[in-house]
Amino acid sequence: MVPDVSRGSRTIGLLHYLYRTSDIEAHVDPHIVAAYDPFVPDPGRHPDATFSDLAADLDQWVNALGDKAPTKHVWHCPVRTAPGDRHLSDDEWATVARRVLNATGIAPEDDDQACRWIAVRHAPDHIHIVATLVRADRTRPRHHKDGTRAQAECRKIEKEFGLRRLKEGDGTAAKRPTSAERHKAERLGQEDASRELLREHVHRALAGAADEAEFFGRLAAEGVRINKRIAPSGDVLGYKVAIVGDRSGDQEPIWYAGSTLAPDLSLPKIRKRFTHATAETEHPTPGSPFGRSAPVRARLFATEATEDVLVAIASADDGTVAAHMKGIGEVLDALAQTSRGHTGTELRDAARYFERATRSHIQARDTQMQALRRAARQIVHSGPALGRGPDGTATVMVLGVVLLAAIAAARWYAARGHAQQAEASQRTAEHLRAAYSAASQAPMAVMRANGQRLPAPLQRRHARTVLAVLPPDLARRLQDEPGWPALAASLQEAERAGRNATVLLQQAVDSRELSTAESVSDVLVWRLRRLADLPAPVAAPHRPDQGLAPSAAPTVPQPSQASTRRR
């Protein structure tokens, strides 16, 4: 259950919106479910009631103050149940409204001097609580931290009403779009509300940007309107952004300051990310003996940088890890804008969820994120990657390690009691799994087929290699995984390239723990291929004289047949 407190200055304007049904399909049967007085005129139920009558009734104590009345006297709090929750009855919504008003101090229970208020329901899943912020005794209500109090009360209501239990807020979340903003987005044909679209545009422009000029240049290239606040000296003090076509009733652009899109998007906080960035980001990515393209080299560098971060998460101080989280977010933003198809869609969703995970009360040491910012920069500047061949293989490699980073982030935040960030990291991991599955399907199918075509003696030899490196129980687990033939094929490719398969596999195992891997064979395949610098998998020709090996994975020898000592 989500409350969203805001303030305004026109009671009648809000009432017109709440009761409007002509152009908002989601508004059905608007009516009052509760009010400070049971005899309040309800335009949704009484044909003689008017909006002006209802507004005058709510504004009575405000108007009595004359010039001393507060400008923003309208208190507005939509309360929405979570997707999948049952629909509450009008009586239950009335109870919700009274409890929220009591908890926030707007209308304490049994206070006959409390503010005037109503609760309007115009959809099955939410109500809008409207109050005017002057009491009958002409004083202002004591509603300090009303948003936090409303959240806390809703957590109690969820438990008592048997609704989905949401996480406690911590004050780091970006402002959610209002109902009016969401419905306006529908009218404009936008996928999301303007503030959400702009937040995404700003993060995409920021991913790996070396300096302020590049950041604003990328933002303009995305078609975003920019309004900079310039000091007399010519220095830029701040910025505002707007969606083209999103205008007010006066046909003026609707601007959003960076700090209102998200707490970490103010210009001073963005500038901190540029510290020491320029000199470090211009170094070219090392080449490859296989003549790989720029998108491939950029993704391989991002894979290495993210693997280094995975090691740091387990041992670095909180400020450094928080900076790494921001860096991972920039890599995700860069991948999202350079990937196509289903993979690109899932990456975009993953980036949006992880953006929430990067915001906490931990002060990030931004200078510690430069390797990841460099990786993001290279991904953006290398351009779109094809979803096949070397580009596809490199994408799978970086997706696999970024998925592990999201899982590690969820555990790291959960250990510190940061529920919102932990949940956002978990949701990120869900979308990254979907992106990995989509991107890995083709290359894994090729490698599995190649592994199944290996002659039986080669399959048994690679099985002994695995048992020599891994503990027996983990080695046997591999033979039940769909990725086992792909691992055998990769070991064979490494040997053909002149590498020692046992030593290489040991390096892949030692590079990081395997406990967070859903498929150990998949993780080892991509680690091994990167360590051996193997090219994108190509289907091996079938040789009739060799015969096909059985489609099932080969049986791993028992410990008596091979050494179980980890080297």
Describe the structure.
The protein is α+β, with helices and mostly antiparallel strands and 567 residues long. The chain is built from 22 helices and 9 strands. Strands 1, 2, 3, 4, 5 and 6 form a 6-stranded antiparallel sheet that branches. A hairpin with a 5-residue loop joins β7 (224-230) and β8 (236-243). α7 (194-206) packs across α8 and α16 (389-415) runs antiparallel to α17. Residues 278-291 and 544-567 have low confidence and may be disordered.
- The proportion of residues forming helix, as a percent range, comes to 40-55%
Query: What is the name of the CATH class of the largest domain?
Result: Alpha Beta
Q: Tell how many strands the DSSP assignment holds.
A: 9
Provide a count of the helices.
22
Instruction: Give the low-confidence spans.
Output: 278-291, 544-567
Question: What is the level-2 CATH architecture name of the largest domain?
Answer: 2-Layer Sandwich
Quote the CATH topology of the largest domain.
Answer: BirA Bifunctional Protein, domain 2
Biggest sheet: strands, sense, closure?
6 strands, antiparallel
| Cα-to-Cα separation, first versus last residue | 54 Å
Shape: elongated
Proportion of strand residues:
5-15%
* Structural class based on helices, strands and sheet pairing: alpha+beta
Average of pLDDT: 86
Radius of gyration: 29 Å
- Domain count, please report it: 4
